[in-house]
Amino acid sequence: MAYIARRFGVSLFIIYVVITISFFLIRLMPGNAVDFLYFQLLASHTVSPQQALQQVQSLYGVNMKEPLLLQYVQYIWNMIHGSLGNSILYPGTSVLHILMNALPWTILIVSTSLIISFFIGISIGTLIAYFRKSKFAVLVSTIMTVLSAIPNYIVAIILLYLLADIHHIFPTGGAYSPEVAPGWNIPFLFSVARHAALPVIVFIITQVGGWSLGMKSSVVSALGEEYITSAHSHGIGSRRIIQSYVGRNAILPLVTSLGLSIGFMVGGSVFIETLFNYPGIGFFLITAVNGRDYPLMMGAFIIVTSAVVLANFLTDLINQRLDPRTMQK
Amino acid sequence: MEDFIHIKNLTVSFRTARGLLRAVDQVTLRLRSGEIFALVGESGCGKSTLAYSLLNLIPEPGFFETGGIVFQGIDIVQAKYRELRNLRGKLISMVFQASMNSFNPVLRFKNQVDHIFDAHPEVWPKRSEGYAYFSELLTLVRLSPDQVLKSFPHELSGGMKQRVAIAISLLLRPTMLILDEPTTALDVLNQRLVLDILRDLHSRLGLTVVFVTHDLGVVADIADRVGVMYAGKLVDVGTLEQVFYDPARHPYVTGLLHAAPSAFQAVRARPIPGSVPNLLELQPGCRFAPRCDLAESMCRVSEPELVVHSSGHVVSCHVMSRMEAKEVMVQ
């Protein structure tokens, strides 16, 4: 327990450090965002310097004429109290509100596709490891290598063109159809599933290769271990050896990568969410970058960072359950 | 004495990029019930492959090229997977060279023992009796049963794991135990402990033991009979006395004995000149001839057969056989 508490404390500290670095980077860059916005407002000649300052201040939740350190303290203070400032592109909307609405969509497509691609991947990987000498396994391996090498946005464009544009099997974008009322009703959930299908399929296609190749090499090296021969020498059945001896050990390194993937996919879903107009974190991050919406960008960075750090923390805990050798007293 | 296991003309080969490598080449050997048989030889002589063959556990890309192994009416070489599963662990069990690595690192010993019980439910219909027997075995190998069962493999030392491996190998009361270099990875004190335990277990349980080793000191300590292998061939089989003291033993055995260092001997260890032949580039004649002091022209032409000497000592050497009056081919 003490270990978990300590590990959690470290995670929070890492998030804090990243927030600090992001804050100062945005402010210390030549032509920084805060000044840029301030002078942009001044140049429009519609507001007085006083008003411009106030506007910038309300956007960032920070008074920019104050010393940098004081601004920083204020940003952190506002953050602790649940405020990340207001968005520039979506006036009158708080950054937190936008991100909290976006996060479930990202979590939906990222977790669904990760779980599906992980299980398909380890199954294929185990099979091609066992039959690695057969022609079929060599063919599957090659296909998986190709799949893992294709960038996801290419697959997304191809599928969009074929399945949404030409054949209209799936919608071209959005999270759900405007004709359905959001809520726990069948038409809405069906619409959500139909809209999530293409992004999820794209993720699965581009991820499954990596999982199966990783599992293949992990299984092949587990097969060479002495404890596998030893299990056979005790007459233990093949199915149990595959599950509890080969699989159970081969999967350990993949669980670590799974944890890392969860974190990175939240940030890496940028292309997919943009192409499918899918209102997740990645979509708003790219919108913020394009529109110089620095408060929103900063907030999205915080979410992505937290996702990576949190996923790492959870991976650590799961690994301890799975591998007694990493157990901490 | 009756044959316990009969290895007949066994050849185990490995497919390599440069051709077929015969790790075990036409070996014929009979083991007797209840004996401790030591299989001796240098690294790469095929002794471990021969030991693995007894459980039909040859690693890829190895395969049985010729011959058979007859045990209790079945041929282990031809046996189906079901027969092998029934045999493995229950009738013949094995302790591996690196026993510290022969346990699943993510499971407690209790789970691994359970898996073995599950594989052969007929041996211990009552699981509790099986566990009682296992506790007895753990006590015999001088470990605390409760502590071992709840431990993960990494929580025990290498020597302790070796002893757990020995206890687990006896769990289903097999009639035969194969030990592949069980003392090689251990320090001298643990070696002594394991040997004492083995001798003790052998006298209590009366099982047949095949002991694979390259350590002649260990052989002298524990074996009833000895088989010596060289470059895939069995070259000398006899009682401990015969192999160590019979002047008609194979010249390679003589070389081995002289090469073994001894703390009590004044003479310096004399290594055998030359090196082991490459099994992929064998010359005609006796495989040991290039390194043999006694080699004659015949030795470089024809390969000697295993011959039973009048003393009962079995040797494959042209020179030694000629000295013997009676020559009988080994069947």
Brief overview:
The complex is a heterodimer of chains A (329) and B (331). With 329 residues, chain A is an all-alpha fold. Chain A contains 14 helices and no strands.
Top keywords for this entry?
heterodimer; A: 329 residues; mainly alpha; MetI-like fold; 14 helices; 0% strand; globular; B: alpha/beta; 9-stranded mixed β-sheet; 11 helices; 31% helix; disordered C terminus
Overall description:
- The complex is a heterodimer of chains A (329) and B (331).
- Chain A has 329 residues and is mainly α.
- Chain A has 14 helices and no strands.
- The longest helix of chain A is centred in the middle third of the chain and has 38 residues, at 186-223.
- The N and C termini of chain A lie close together (9 Å).
- Chain B has helices at 47-53, 81-87, 109-119, 127-140, 145-149, 158-169, 188-205, 216-222, 240-245, 251-259, 318-323, and strands spanning 3-16, 19-32, 36-40, 62-71, 74-75, 92-95, 176-180, 208-213, 225-230, 233-239, 307-308, 314-315, 328-329.
- Chain B has a nine-stranded mixed sheet with strand order 6-7-8-3-9-10-12-11-13, with helices on both faces.
- In chain B, helix 4 (127-140) crosses helix 6.
- The radius of gyration of chain B is 21 Å and the shape is globular.
- The A-B interface holds A 225-227, 229-237, 240, 244-245, 248-249, 252, 322-325 and B 55, 57, 59, 84-90, 93-94, 96, 98, 101-108, 115-116, 118-120, 152, 154, 165, 168.
